[in-house]
Design a protein that fits this description.
Elements lengths: L4 H13 L18 E3 L2 E5 L4 E12 L2 E11 L4 E12 L2 E11 L5 E10 L4 E10 L4 E10 L10 E9 L3 E2 L1
Antiparallel strand pairs: 1-3, 2-3, 3-4, 4-5, 5-6, 6-7, 7-8, 8-9, 9-10, 10-11
Amino acid sequence: MKTTPDRIILLLLLMYCFCASSVWGSDSPFPDENIHIKADSMNHGQPDGVFTASGNVVITWQGLHLVSDNASYDSNTRMLHAIGNVVISKGDDIMKGDSIKLNLESGRGEMDKATLSVPDSNLTFTGEKLIRLTESEFEISKTELTTCEVPDPSWKFGAARLKVNVLGYAT
């Protein structure tokens, strides 16, 4: 992958635009707290502050690692939107889905057709929509949960709506 002036400008703008936040914790693998984006193609709409990335997108920020086919980020609203084969990992926890909208200011996010795996609790949740309410709480609609291997677990529970704490509690 070759470095283009657009990528250098985008990286410098991202470094300037983003300040440190405790939303995702402080265990960043990078010495700074900036968002790091890699992709086959990137573009920045100067007037509207929207950054777009397509093809093999990798975003790393404060211990969070996101991979997707395409992503856009609005620096004014601090909203990140990723589409296509989205995989997010932080520590051992892994979320997979079709798309995600994530507010980097508040940490609230919504993922469509999602799977959340929490190895510490030995739980896997699947659902039509997964909403991240806080660092450890999620709400999942049309959900199933299991401690067995997916996609074909030997047993599972189902619910129309489930509120989950990644420590293993569900209501």
